């Protein structure tokens, strides 16, 4: 009997779950489903977004609905149109083997008449945003006087968005005897008030710690001078070639300006804010979901309800005015059991906000330095090498090989590799070798008056050819290194894991041992290769905060185990393909023969990078975004 069967779910739901590929119930599902199936009860569930809560209420709801009765039996309220559509889709997927169940989404910005028509055809489950729902009730287009179930999803978000009145009005027109299930990431007073007013003796379940940030998100801050904020953002993007991120700004104007600058500098970015029309916003979201946009620059309001899995980083380009908002921002990453990072670019005057946020999320930030030019170059170079290794060859190229061989025949393999890599890489080196260090003075002493001197000397930084692809995250790699090298707790530091490779530091006294032992080892049939990196990684972290706030949580690291979601990090999508600049409608456009394969005219039309400068060189336009950094 699998774990879903043990929860008491019906045959048809189990079939749908099998199709969806869910292997094990998540914590919130394990806790909520048996309770909701066993009795008609009110429930308050504290669970972050991305924990599988839609299924936690969706499965029991579907099982309880009477499919032979066409009346509306359940109402699910959710904060945004995005989420509303997502929940509707999920419920449809879950109920696909359940005959006769109709789910209808109602939300603003679409035809109210069409939505009313759909409801008239018979919708046992309505998924709605509060504003449109209230509107339809007022116009008599919907009748919820017979519902048995009401679900308030992301209640804190709904109240944050000012839907208190609407929610109260809607709940007042529904029958008292119904069951109400409230899901919320946090429990501010307003949510507690709703619970008190409209629920009777609700069962309470909590996933993770109350009011805490998700255990799958680590938090980092980078201290810079205000004038370097944008440069810092670019460097962070360059140091994370696979970044797929939401970048938060405080105002619409800043959002637009940052997005424009990024686009100008050759990044795949777009702005999302309230001055865009609904159609424009939909277009941006579609491109973001399709991974044609790598950096979505957004305001808090516009980003509410963004529900995209696999976001690797949330970047707080500016901190929000209200520290509570930070939680909503960082919750956009670390979803569905994946690990995520929430980055804050901060100036000295804002540092106290970091401590305030730490108190709210009950997790510590790690202070990090903006990567140096050398470090970025190394990362990009290795990323490029990995990309070359992984590139699938299109055999159309075979026709051209004789001619290509003719040109290159005098080069040795070594020379050829050097030249190939240099084609993409020279401009990176040229850009970064001239650029200064932009990390501001460490915040360590400022935040922790331990007076301990910084130890920036004597650290050796290594490059090693294992990374997240081998199911490592920073924590498990650190453990692996400590164990393998028989080193102490703090002897391995500044562990930075990329997809196909990683960096770490030790003090110089350990370097012979590191090189000796690691270079002789095989990991699952692959030889480990470790080299000393040119960059020292900035010595030890001044605050000695080594991600100490995170629990192992969802399948962190090599074990790949743990309950809940599939934690196999290697199943994280390979984004190399996703961000290619030959995207959009032009992706299937053949290369112009006259340009040949080594053309310096990349196929780069369409999409969001139209305004990006044309690359002056480059073997392929989709090389791993060894972007042309701008010299301004
Ligand atoms: P939610 O918190 O409901 O937004 O869910 C986040 C994501 O996790 C969605 O893409 C779900 O399809 C997925 N999901 C939900 N339950 C499971 C499960 N038991 N195993 C794997 N994925 C799940």
UniProtKB/TrEMBL annotation:
One of its GO terms (molecular function) is RNA strand annealing activity. One of its GO terms (cellular component) is cytosol. Residues 225-378 form the Helicase C-terminal domain. The keyword Disulfide bond does not apply. Residues 532-632 are annotated as: Disordered. InterPro entries: DbpA/CsdA_RNA-bd_dom, DEAD/DEAH_box_helicase_dom, DEAD/DEAH_RhlB, DEAD_box_RNA_helicases, Helicase_ATP-bd, Helicase_C-like, Nucleotide-bd_a/b_plait_sf, P-loop_NTPase. Pfam families: DbpA, DEAD, Helicase_C. Gene3D superfamilies: 3.30.70.330, P-loop containing nucleotide triphosphate hydrolases (3.40.50.300). This is RNA helicase. It comes from Flavobacterium endophyticum.
